[in-house]
């Protein structure tokens, strides 16, 4: 698992951005902004039972594969913007990494950013379920 | 409840010692008070874990004894899952027909013309007294009259109705009434099934063991009669005592006054919410008969996002399908947000909610 010093380069400025937020409403607003910036969104037409994440209060779907260079790509979509924002940040963090590196990442960044603590327990579990699903896919693709 | 645990914590209906006697007396006194609150006698009250277990008790103890393949059970699209799934299960087991009465999605009311057709030939009608989603109070008097005229028994899910209206079981003439204590100032984990004594005599045990046993030999067993036959294991003594105290407290108020207070808050709040751009309300909270529930959605803020924002402001708002997915399907929405008012809420709280909701909508829509 990664330590705080081993975050992917793309994640570090995002973590700093969230640390600068004044309160949880500011963090939610920032998550809303990131929801619109998802680099690899999964449109609702591609949402299926097999790519649905169990344990998330909203509808959330993830598909993972490798690009032509063998790098990890995570596509995600959710109806709740807060979940979509979390997915977008995760995609920014993991896209382009090797699947082995993705499988070794820690989900702790959500806590460091102050996001997980402001989510309801079931929503936090939903985030962890999403992360676990991504890592399972990364192991399969390694 | 504290007094029970501190002073006479003991099992009821068993030992002969003083503590057990006190526990038994308190349990049965609570039954008497609760039954009296609901306008009936204690012989017609079976303690359950809540309305869900009460409905399941009807399905297991009465329906499995008295219904067969050709029987029809009528439900509505407004029902809570607790009043749908037991009948679907029974349909799978013995082949009963389940009919659903639709709602009019413009008026948020039951289609009574469709009900009149559906009830024909039915053996049992199961209807929610007041919708947990819409806050709509159904025309139960008409439903009971039409059902009985057709020869059908009536089961009312009064989980939401009991906190808003005086339930007088003997007067309303329903055959079964399911109630949960925790929606009317009582503890969680207890409720009851009110059932006419003549019908209770046609019910068989659902579970066995504990208090419901009269004798057991290696050849077989005999059971207690009346409500005792359906109260297995160790009774919910503390919870029953707590519920008894709750109805004693509620009895100090007129239910019509409680309802007027709640309805005033819900009506004012709904009126203010309708002025907020993007808010759509499901139900008729301004209706004098409505409960304190106001279900709503915003057209661009997803319901779970909105619930989290409101929680940040200290407003506990229920979100999701409210265990009423067929109703969500009828309304063509996946979920709603719902605020609920009751006796302890104030107009100041309603005003703070509107102010905060306006702030959230302005910031995130």
- The strand count of chain B comes to 15
CATH superfamily of the largest domain in chain B: Type I PLP-dependent aspartate aminotransferase-like (Major domain)
* Structure classification of chain B: alpha/beta
Give the helix/strand class of chain A: mainly alpha
Judging by the overall fold, what is the CATH architecture of the largest domain in chain B? 3-Layer(aba) Sandwich
Brief account:
Chain A is mainly α and 142 residues long.
Describe it.
The complex is a heterodimer of chains A (142) and B (365). With 142 residues, chain A is mainly alpha-helical. Chain A has a single domain, classed as Sufe protein. Chain: A (Alpha-Beta Complex), CATH 3.90.1010. Chain A has six helices and two strands. In chain A, helix 2 crosses helix 3 (81-94) and helix 3 (81-94) packs parallel to helix 6 (121-141). In chain A, 39% of the residues are buried. The mean pLDDT of chain A is 88. Chain B is of the alpha/beta class. Chain B folds into two domains: 2-250, Type I PLP-dependent aspartate aminotransferase-like (Major domain) (Aspartate Aminotransferase, domain 2, 3-Layer(aba) Sandwich), CATH 3.40.640.10; 255-360, Aspartate Aminotransferase, domain 1 (Alpha-Beta Complex), CATH 3.90.1150.10. Chain B is built from 13 helices and 15 strands. In chain B, the strands form four sheets. A seven-stranded mixed sheet of chain B has the order 1-9-8-7-6-2-3, with helices on both faces. In chain B, strands 12-13-15-14 form a four-stranded antiparallel sheet, covered by helices on one side. Chain B has a two-stranded antiparallel sheet with strand order 4-5. In chain B, strand 4 (103-104) and strand 5 (109-110) form a beta hairpin. Chain B is globular, with a radius of gyration of 22 Å. At the A-B interface, helix 2 and helix 3 of A face helix 11 of B.
């Amino acid at each position: 698992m990664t330590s705080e010093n081993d975050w992917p380069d793309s994640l570090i400025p995002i973590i700093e951005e969230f640390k600068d937020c004044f309160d949880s409403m500011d963090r939610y607003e920032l998550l809303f902004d990131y929801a619109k910036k998802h680099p690899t969104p999964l449109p609702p037409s591609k949402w299926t039972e097999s790519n649905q994440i169990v344990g998330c209060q909203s509808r959330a779907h993830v598909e993972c594969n490798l690009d032509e260079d063998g790098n990890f790509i995570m596509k995600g979509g959710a109806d709740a913007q807060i979940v979509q924002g979390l997915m977008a940040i995760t995609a920014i963090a993991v896209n382009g990494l090797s699947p082995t590196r993705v499988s070794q990442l820690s989900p702790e960044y959500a806590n460091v950013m102050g996001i997980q603590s402001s989510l309801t327990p079931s929503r936090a579990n939903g985030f962890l379920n999403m992360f676990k699903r991504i890592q399972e896919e990364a192991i399969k693709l390694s | 409840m504290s007094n029970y645990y501190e002073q006479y914590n003991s099992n009821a209906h068993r030992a002969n010692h003083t503590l057990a006697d006190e526990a038994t007396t308190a349990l049965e006194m609570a039954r008497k008070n609760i039954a009296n609150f609901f306008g009936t006698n204690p012989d017609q009250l079976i303690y359950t874990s809540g309305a869900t277990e009460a409905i399941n008790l009807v399905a297991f103890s009465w329906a499995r004894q008295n219904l067969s393949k050709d029987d029809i059970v009528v439900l509505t699209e407004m029902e809570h899952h607790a009043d749908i799934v037991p009948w679907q299960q029974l349909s799978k087991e013995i082949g009963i027909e389940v009919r659903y009465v639709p709602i009019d999605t413009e008026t948020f009311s039951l289609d009574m013309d469709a009900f009149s057709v559906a009830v024909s030939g039915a053996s049992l009608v199961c209807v929610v007294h007041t919708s947990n989603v819409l806050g709509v109070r159904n025309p139960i008097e008409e439903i009971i009259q039409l059902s009985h005229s057709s020869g059908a028994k009536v089961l009312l899910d009064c989980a939401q109705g009991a906190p808003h209206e005086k339930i007088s079981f003997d007067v309303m003439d329903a055959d079964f009434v399911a109630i949960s204590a925790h929606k009317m100032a009582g503890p969680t984990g207890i409720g009851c099934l009110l059932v006419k004594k003549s019908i209770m005599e046609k019910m068989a045990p659902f579970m066995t063991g504990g208090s419901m046993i009269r004798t057991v030999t290696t050849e077989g067993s005999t059971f207690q009669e009346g409500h005792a036959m359906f109260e297995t294991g160790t009774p919910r003594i503390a919870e029953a005592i707590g519920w008894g105290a709750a109805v004693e407290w509620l009895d100090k108020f007129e239910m019509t006054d409680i309802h007027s207070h709640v309805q005033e808050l819900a009506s004012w709040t709904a009126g203010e919410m309708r002025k907020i751009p993007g808010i759509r309300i499901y139900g008729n909270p301004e209706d004098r008969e409505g409960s304190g529930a106001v279900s709503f959605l915003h057209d661009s803020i997803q319901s779970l996002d909105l619930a989290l924002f409101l929680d940040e402001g200290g407003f506990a708002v229920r979100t999701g399908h409210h265990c009423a997915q067929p109703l969500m399907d009828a309304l063509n929405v996946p979920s709603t947000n719902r605020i609920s008012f009751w006796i302890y809420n104030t107009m100041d709280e309603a005003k703070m909610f509107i102010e905060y909701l306006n702030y959230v909508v302005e910031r995130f829509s």
